[in-house]
Amino acid sequence: MITRPPLPLLPILAICSILLAGPAFPAQATADAGSLRAQIASLGNDAAGFTDSAPAFARWITYQQEILTRSLDDRLASASTIAETDAAEISREEQNLLRSVREAIALRREHIATLQAHPQKTFDVRDYGAAGDGVANDAPAVRKAIADAVAYPNSRVHLSAGVYRLADLDHAIRNVPSPYFDGCERAPGVTPADLGSINGSPHLFISRAANLVISGDGPDKTLLLIGTAWETGIDIQNSRNVTLRDLALDYEKLPFTQGKVVNVIDNKTCDVTVDDGYPSPLDPHIRNARFGMVTRNFVKTAEGIVPLPAPSAPSYFTLSDIQKLPGDERPATYRFTIGSSGVHASSAARADELPGNALFVLYGRVSNERPLIKFDAVQNCALANVSIHSSFSAGVLVKRSGLVELDACKIIPKPGTTRICSTNADGVFGQSNYLSPYIHDTLMTLNGDDFINTHANAMTIDDYAGRTFIARVNGHSHFLPGQRLIVVETASWQRKYASIIRKTTVRKTNGVLMMEVEMEDPIPGAIRSRKSLAAAGDKGRPDRLLNLDVTGPGAVVTDNELVYGYRLILRSANALVAGNHFLNRHNPGNFIILGTHSLEAWKANNITIRNNTIDSLGNILFAPQAPVPNRNLLIADNVIVNPEIRSDAQVFPARIFDSGLNHAVTLRDNVYRAPAD
Fold first, then answer.
1. Residue 614 and residue 640: Cα distance in Å, rounded?
2. pTM higher than 0.90, yes or no?
């Protein structure tokens, strides 16, 4: 459980004036820069100490040192021009990131000491009755092995070669309060079961574990087969130093179907057939999925199966109807009707633009709260040599957590099959974290949405009174006493209020769980809540609460292969993207998005994109919303492979230099060339 104390704070009223008006705190921050620089420099010694025992972790420390140094250098160089409020916020972001890195280092040392003090004990799931034959329900045996292992200080649960079918759900999670409520007081009448009810039941639930490894004999030999549609495979909560390694995961009931477009009727209608072995588009777990009926369209080329290149042909459709056509022919024929806009799909999409050899995937997509693997309020956890072959939403969800590492993983269609889909949504989805994930040496391909998306989640305000906000429990963010909370106007992201959390209380009102967030300072009457808008007959959108201390800083994305997915999105500060290979020649959309967008925030300060090979028709899109500008962006030493682009001005839209949207953008030594073929 992450219940970190707040950073040393100035008096509350002074903090609010810093955030909203800006007194002399930046001068103090500048004076303290020497101490901060010394602390950053000392990370080099920490990295050296892990070079032999944990080389990837040592590199991560070095990357964080690079990130922090760039932020500090920019803040000092801009001291005469940067707004005092911005300088104060950047200084706070640096301190938060440095502290999170220090915590990760301390936990890694603690982990090593525990391993040295306690020989590892192995718990083999076959000793608990697991068959590994892909037929029997092995979930109870695996759960019992994990429960026994968690009680030991240094343990390993082993799944030897086989297919382990996890056919039922672990409802024990319902009696464990969600980490969303960490630090909250409970009002009378609220029970632990109430606080666990928002979790959703996974197939395997791991809570309060430490120094635990769950391993197979390799992703080509050990497979966990997840039996229940729309539900999470593995949920790891309030744990530290837990690693899943050397295994693969897949769903027993495929979360998508696929096939061929066989006839285009008109601009809104086409007929399709489903490939052998894939679900019917009318199966409930496909048709009734929460995000509607969304298809992505593909074509077979000399390179293999690739997404159709919008806008010359539509990549995504949202369907309004699916009908099975009469007849007993095999394969059966279904009629797709294109409807309104939806996830990545435009209402202007036309079926008659599809080529004659078009293929389709129809996703049974659900909320990212139901990923294949979830890490919630964990520290120093990892996936190593793990393959993910399908998911109803994201492959991996990380939320409210410290360091989570993906090391040499694969998010890919199952080898040896004809599948043209891995996950229905993002490969990795990071939400309201103390540290964003460290993703390296990993392959992601053909996922239905973004490769990686890191952001903070803002919560809608239902009501407020005096110093207290009231909002419906949504399970997304985190609110601890001492943390910084701001209110933003939903459409413009104009900051309207800032203060420090004094206390949080969960209360049940008319059977609905509500979060009460008491602040140090009175709330002004200009805040727009659901209640105030309804009373005024205003159909506008309420303002939102955002916790600035869990915005997901420190993302490190290095040495990965990201192929024919959608995009890389960074909506938080202090990140590094280096040494990756992006391949998506058949979609001219943006391959990297930085900054505030929709309800996923915060701004992208201090982002470095260097030494990547970007083989794509797209460009980098900086998507801030005034008055939330990005700043200190470095794009350097990348190889841009594109048949038409030959300069920075073409690959980076001119509006990134708009001083109202992006500050201190540096483009340097990028190389442009045409594809070799």
1. 5
2. yes
